[in-house]
Structure formats: C-alpha cells, structure tokens
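Section 5: illustrative case.
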C-alpha cells in the first residue's frame, strides 16, 4: 500500500477486509472497485478472474495433539477444534468447517493462522501465509491423505477499473508470480 500511495499521492485509498464470499456484493454496490481473495473451485464467482492457484496446508501448533500423529484422518480432525473461515450469507453466519461441528469461525486467514499458532485448534490455510511459521517451527504440517478442494487467488472488479486498481492488480499478480 505504501508503494501505491507513493505512486498516487493525491488518491484516497481504503482497504476493507471481508471474506471472499462477500466480495461480489461489495463490488456490485460500488463499495469497492476491486476485491482480491482465495476461493475454492466451487466457490468461484462467475465474475471473478483467476490470478493463481494456491496450495493449502493442514496445520496445527507443534504442541497440539494432532501434530504428534504420524498421519491424521477425518476422525482425528473431528475430535479437535477446527479454526475456519466464516462469512455472512443471507444474514446468517456460515462457517467453512471441513469435518466437524467443533469449530471457531473467524473472518481472516491471518487471524486463523495466529489462533492455530496459539494451539486453539487446527486449520486449512494457504501455504504462502503459513510458510514463514512452518519454517520457524511455530506451525506443523499435518500429514494426511485427504482429498482437499483446489483453491485459487482471484479478483472481482467493477465495470470500469481505474488506474489505481490496475496498479494494485499488477502488483498482486507480480507477487503471486514470484511465489511460483
């Protein structure tokens, strides 16, 4: 954001964090010009454009009981709290829990990651977000043979993308290209 403000010093820029499931309504109401987020293949909005595939990891804190297992199953995961993404749909909270009714729903992947680092539970998180914590040893990848949904980093935009939104889109696309 610093680079954008340097490039466009007289432009007001606001960042609003909402789950990807809420992006389309914010763009359609012209609340925002462009929205970026991580979508499952099933949750892809028809108006969203693909930027990159993102690999996901099942993770837990090193001292979490699941981290001690050589391999985890659905039954293992169901015994412990999943920290998952939550969004509003038709005025109801919807949590994207995978295997259990035992969950803690939060609205941002960064907050989910921090809760998992604090051993609140386990989560399915984007690898670029947890790479540093995995390398530092504050998170562990859970070994499993479960089939997980594919995830894609995508964007939804209004009808007339401006120069600031274009510059932001280019920066995000470059960042994602460097990750691969």
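Designed sequence:
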């Amino acid at each position: 954001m610093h680079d954008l403000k340097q490039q466009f010093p007289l432009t007001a820029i606001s960042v609003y964090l909402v789950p990807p499931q809420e992006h389309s309504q914010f763009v359609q109401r012209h609340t925002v010009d462009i929205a970026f987020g991580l979508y499952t293949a099933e949750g892809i909005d028809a108006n969203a454009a693909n930027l990159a595939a993102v690999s996901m990891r099942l993770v837990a804190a090193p001292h979490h009981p699941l981290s001690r297992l050589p391999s985890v199953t659905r039954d293992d995961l169901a015994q412990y709290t999943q920290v998952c993404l939550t969004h509003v749909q038709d005025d109801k909270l919807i949590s994207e829990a995978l295997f259990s009714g035992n969950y803690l729903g939060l609205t941002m992947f960064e907050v989910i990651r921090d809760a998992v680092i604090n051993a609140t539970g386990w989560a399915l998180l984007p690898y670029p977000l947890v790479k540093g914590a995995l390398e530092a040893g504050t998170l562990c990848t859970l070994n499993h043979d479960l089939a997980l949904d594919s995830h894609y980093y995508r964007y939804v935009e209004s009808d007339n993308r401006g120069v600031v939104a274009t510059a932001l889109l280019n920066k995000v696309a470059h960042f994602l290209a460097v990750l691969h």
